[in-house]
Amino acid sequence: MPNITFILANGELKKVAVAAGVSLMKAAIDGGTGGLDAECGGCLTCATCHVYIDGPLVDKIPAPSEEENVMLEGAAVHVRPTSRLSCQVVLSDELDGLVVELPKSQY
Ligand code: FES
What we know:
Bound molecules: FE2/S2 (inorganic) cluster
Family: Belongs to the adrenodoxin/putidaredoxin family.
Keywords: 2Fe-2S, Iron, Iron-sulfur, Metal-binding
Number of domains: 1
Protein name: Ferredoxin
CATH superfamily: Beta-grasp domain
Distance between the termini: 32 Å
Number of strands: 5
Oligomer: single chain
Pfam families: Fer2
CATH topology: Ubiquitin-like (UB roll)
CATH architecture: Roll
Largest sheet: 5 strands, mixed
CATH class: Alpha Beta
Domain 2Fe-2S ferredoxin-type: 2-106
Radius of gyration: 12 Å
Shape: globular
Order of helices and strands: EEHEHEE
């Protein structure tokens, strides 16, 4: 069961344990992090589930698809090299300890 640490927009840390196979977006929403709008529910059409993933585990996450990169280009908030759309990241036991930062806003 991967344990994820979210860095909230106000700097607080929130730790969430989720089942493998769940998307990072669902983990955040079900974990009560706030800060993700995820308006399209994971259909890759809104880019309001934007997060930053840092640390050594980032290399264990498959690279974004071309479609995800196109959507990230349209994200309202500053995009970093480690930006991802959280609905496209599926959590696995290998990602136990992942650290994810939420943007100040999705708009
Ligand atoms: S929830 Fe809409 S793109 Fe991720």
